[in-house]
Design brief:
Length: about 180
Amino acid sequence: MRPLRKSFSGHQEPSCPQPGISGRGRLGSPGLGKKYLASSILLSLLSIAGCASDQGASTLATTTMTIGSKTYTVEIANTSATEERGLMRRDSMPADHGMIFVFSTPQQAHFWMKNTRFDLDIVYITADGHVDSIRHMKAYDRSDVPSDGPVKWAVELNAGQPAENGVKVGDVITIPESAREMKE
């Protein structure tokens, strides 16, 4: 809140000039307030457009990968930044798509669904390509969803896809060459 001061006419006015209210800017230039207002509106619209594009097409590299009886197009999250972002802020994903997360070394993996708008299943895969565990994850759920043991990869698919395609713990999944190693 700005402090108020009394003007000579007795009405209350802000102690700082208000661009755009009288059509005069901070320095008293005619029309500067209108330009300020137009610029503010333009910046607001660009900001809204930026938020809308937040859920648009990904710029991540993709590869194809067979998981169970189906071949998927998977986005490769192989940097810290892409791993952190994952599928957040997207409204959906095509049924034949997924995302593979690549870890630098085998580790106990933990995922959550912060800002993820649709349910997913996650397939945790060991360094030798075996399915370690398969977990269901609910939209927006911040609960920890861990792997059973150390894993090198995690693949997120639309909910129900692993079961629909016969994926089971212990199955062997071939990891595409382009998704084998983490990049920094």
